[in-house]
Amino acid sequence: MEDPSEYCMQAVNCYERNPERAVALFTRAGELGSPEGWFGLAEMKINGMGTPKDVEGAVELYKRSAEAGNSPAMFRLGSIFTGSYGYPEDQEQCRYWFEKAAENGVELAYPEIAAIYLYGYGVAADADKALHYYKLSADSGNAQSMFMMGYLASEGVGMTKDEKKAAEWFRKSAEAGIPEAQFRMARMAESGAIPGGDKVALQWYEKAVEQGFAPAMFNLGTMYYEGRGVNRDFNKAFELYDRVSSTEDGDALFMTARMLFEGLGAAQNVEEAMRRFGRSANAGNQLAKQFLDDLRRKQNTQFIKIDGL
Fold first, then answer.
1. Cβ atoms of 287 and 254 closer than 8 Å
2. From CA 262, how far away is CA 160, in angstroms rounded?
3. 254 touches 263 (CB < 8 A)
């Protein structure tokens, strides 16, 4: 007697080195009525492995598998209906299948359906359901969902606003390496919401900076600029501000322009400073706009070039 489960196992073991063989095995398992066989064949078709790429055909197989109770197929359908794989977006179908996957214990689906209910994607926003699924995800070890639990607690979404609970979740997320959470921990230390003050803030900012998180770079630059919680170091401040300014951040451009104009942390360069003041103003920084307006009124701009203005 043929065993579709054995065919699927063989296909999984050979799909990389012999995708055509895997397609044949998944096809035979599907012919024998195996939801796992339909799912495996759909995976091969959607990726064009061992068979021509066929997104439409893959979706039909995923549906057949999901309707037969295969939870990975439910999750895949949720992903596909976001508009991925070149398939048309369908918000209602996306919600339906992600929720089905979550109800069947697919942990990857928890934060997906949580975000759908939080932001009202294809369904009325529901803070209680969002909280429920973020909590399931966070409890399963998802660090980004731990951050979201902190956010919900800090904003009072789906629960009473609770800074202590927010700090607990942000800490768990930060310790798991999420830079946004590390940034939040630093801000809370600065504000006194958690103990440690500038010393603790410095430590969390440094961790977030190591991961390239721009807001942490800017705030850490300000700590060095002001000598707050650390020895004042204009060179370090300029280096951090300059890294952020490469993203055309108006505030970072203003600070580097100011430092170049005054020769703080970098060699004085008025022409480059004025270019950066112009870029900062174009990015919406009001202090840069005011500075340039003041220069114009004083008629002192004839010897410098203000880039873009």
1. yes
2. 48
3. no
> Tokens 């089905």 belong to which residue?
100
What is the DSSP track for 49-70? SSS---HHHHHHHHHHHHHTT-
Per-residue pLDDT tens for 36-68? 999 999 999 999 999 999 999 999 999 999 999
Cα distance between residue 143 and residue 114, in whole Å: 14
- Alpha helices, H only, the chain: 4-14, 19-31, 35-47, 55-67, 71-80, 91-103, 109-119, 127-139, 143-155, 163-175, 179-191, 197-210, 214-226, 234-245, 250-262, 270-282, 286-297
Chosen CATH of 233-309 out of 3.30.70.250, 2.130.10.10, 1.25.40.10, 3.10.20.600: 1.25.40.10
Task: Residue 226: count other Cβ atoms within 10 Å of its Cβ.
Answer: 12
Rounded CA separation 202/217 (Å) = 11
Q: Could you give the CA distance from residue 173 to residue 138 in angstroms, rounded to a whole number?
A: 9
Q: Kindly state the average pLDDT of the residues 191-201.
A: 96
Nearest to 183 by CA among 199, 205, 212, 154: 205
- The CATH number of domain 1-103, selected from 1.10.510.10, 1.20.81.30, 1.20.5.420, 1.25.40.10: 1.25.40.10
Which residues have CB under 8 Å from 212's CB, separation 6+?
A: 179
Pick from 229, 306, 231, 236: which is nearest to 264 by CA? Answer: 236
Tell me how far apart the alpha carbons of residues 296 and 15 are, in angstroms, rounded to a whole number.
69
> Which structure tokens are listed for 142?
């998802």
How many angstroms separate the CA atoms of 239 and 7, rounded? 58
CA end-to-end span of the chain, whole Å?
79
- pLDDT for 203-237, tens place per residue? 999 999 999 999 999 999 999 999 999 999 999 99
